[in-house]
Queue: 2 jobs
Job 1
Amino acid sequence: MSQQDVEDLDVERIRTDFPILEREVDGKQVVYLDNAATTHTPEPVVEAMSDYYRRYNANVHRGIHHLSQEASVAYEDAHDRVAEFVGASGGREEMVFTKNTTESENLIAYSWGLSELGPGDEVVLTEMEHHASLVTWQQIAKRTGADVKYVRVDETGRLDMDHARECITDDTAMVSVVHVSNTLGTVNPVSELADIAHDHDAYIFVDGAQAVPTRPVDVEKIDADFYAFSGHKMVGPTGIGCLYGKADILEALEPYHYGGGMIRKVTFEDSTWGDVPWKFEPGTPPIAEAVGLHAAVDYLEEIGMERVRDREETLTEYAYDRLAAEDDVEIYGPEPGPERGGLVSFNLEGVHAHDLTSILNDHAVAIRAGDHCTQPLHDKLGVAASARASFYVYNTREEIDALVEALEDARTLFA
Ligand SMILES: Cc1ncc(COP(=O)(O)O)c(C=O)c1O
């Protein structure tokens, strides 16, 4: 994509799809830089969901009546659309809807991990895993007697790939790695890690919560066995997450939850399961949310994921450079470029990240403070918390300026 194409991106037009960006608090327009936590929802997504509730709200899979048929088709089609968006050629047979990325991690950890892991097996994580992956695999390993190893993060905020090669051995059963770190912004070489895992007959689970919203992702090119992400971080609704899995692996797995809508045959003695993905989706699923996620994918594709990525890179570089120019700001993670996603975590000397965020809030600048669900990584960085500004396609340079200018207030207050 040329620089011209990126410049051509009509951010002002895009912003009109997000009325919440006009929101004022105490007379100030909100500057929303908390997109890694959740993105805003554009009108076409809200419209698609309200159209569902207005015109064809019904439960799926069960009804012969017209509304249920329409709802079922929409729900099922959403699986195909999301699968296509991430390059899963098997369509719905490789795309399970869950509640969020966290549930997608748990689904595989319980369904596969509890039965397949045991003493002598190893699960390889990285020091930059989100708790969604770290806590889940840590606890499943405890229950099964497997060991957990962590690939080191080096001083530049990248994975130490030599250490990855040492950690992943023939004892490794699962490698679970975050694609784009929600704290450091690092874009990890997941395809290379998949090759290493497969050389040792291990599976690789990729946490794509920060990747799918911000760049083109092709699960088949990566050769991921499992790949997870959340609707609410990609201009879709809350309450829906996605789990890609290779068709033959999902086919062989036992379900994680049980109930109605997932079965083929039930007797008083036993039950058999329906096809993938339905066998992993018991009970009434997130139907309106699936309709909304379908619309979100359409929306993002209309912009083009290359443009979304390039816009993220442009904004991140701008924010990084502005913050790096301040002597009292410490930034974590790699320098801007293709190896950094659209967020910047930092600390202002002498000001706790929570205080900083609260002062920024007085300026209606919304960022996040805390450990961002990466406590062990913060321990390693030697800080209890950091402030994180994260950008999306509708953000502007002026909003980043507002953030940097508001830092002055924090300095004055804590001087
Ligand atoms: C990298 C990463 N993984 C997993 C998650 C968990 O996502 P969710 O809360 O939607 O389950 C997040 C959310 O912040 C994340 O950034």
Job 2
Amino acid sequence: MAVPRRYHLVTLGCPKNDVDSAHLARLLEGGELVPVADPGEADAIIVNTCGFIEQSQAQSMAAVRELAAAKREGQVLIVAGCMTQLYGRQVREETPGIDHVFGVGQWHEVARLLQVDVDAIYDIPESNVRVEGPSAYLKISDGCDAPCTFCVIPKIKGGLRSAPAGLLVREARRLVEAGAKELVLVGQDTTAWGEDLGMPVGSGLPGLLRMLSEAAGPETWLRLMYAYPSRVTPELIGTMAELPNVVHYLDVPLQHGSEAVLRRMKRPHNLERVYRFIEELRRAMPDIVLRTSFIAGFPGETEAEFEELLAFARAVEFDHAGCFTYSRQQWTGAYEMEGQVPDEVKAERRARFMEQQQAISARRAARFIGRTLEMLVEGEGEDEDGLPVVAGRTYREAPEVDGLVFARGRARPGERVRVAIEDASEYDLFGRVVRERPGRGRVRAISP
Ligand code: SF4
């Protein structure tokens, strides 16, 4: 292969895959390769695939086939990531034009293949980061030891591996110096952080949060995603409430609201405990915003069990809740389970869930009308009358998964402004930018 100079990288799947791609991009650019938006101009085309569920595999395969079909002489096509970790040989056999196949966590090998001297590059192979506007994802761990019967992640990514605290602290500082205003902590299960380093169950994350809070400084938000229900401990809740820069937001994927289904999923199934920690979270942080996600149509789910899920979601009133239809996944415990639910039933149940949740989310969002919130500006533009408008997120919205806040007024992307909330829909908030008048403690609108 001639020395490659330009690369085109396609990333499919979840934010964690984006973080992995950012890691690869850092390695390649450290080796002086230049990214190009047009695959036709690249010497090397790399696809970071997703193998989470059937739809994502199909999407990854479609992208690979398209790139393979358009490949020109001299180009090298590399396919890596979760899907090839599972089905590498098959993918290669089925798609002529693929030159190399890698699994997950083999970014150094990909870079070496492209003649990058990886040993000469400053790298953070374990923590990995991705900067997205004023926010940066900080992956604190990878892999998972949980036995969830619907999930293929442990098979793809392997067991839990926590990034060392010192490395994460250094990385947090570097990101803040580079302009990040928010660090979003991710991992398959962030609350398991440290267990593989010998820390007692659930005890690592509160300590890590303290270190990162100090390293990031008071002006940087820290946001916690993907908490595991049985690891939302009083210590974690107390730490979140105490640290001023940890936003009052928690994403806890709960997967179901029926104990029988949770048992079959091999998930924590004591719903009393779940109600209790939600109550504790709300007592410690009355303004906390809760996000969760559920699965409709898990094998054997009866109508009565699904109604338990609806009742549970009504009782808790999550601010944001997503619902996926169950996707049958090879190499998981649920794959061979009896009572696979027909697709139409799954879709109908999901639609019913979403209809109920939209009303709940709208009610929860309406609580913010009349309040003034800090907003991190992500973009600016004009409304239909040509007046300036900005869009961004407050502590209530995580990047990419939740809604946005739209406010009349002027501000620059990356700036932190205060927004008086005037209206709300089920996903978004609407208002106007206000600024503190120095020394008077009053606010004035900077635009009509
Ligand atoms: S905790 Fe999350 S990543 Fe781990 S097995 Fe369960 S669903 Fe999969």
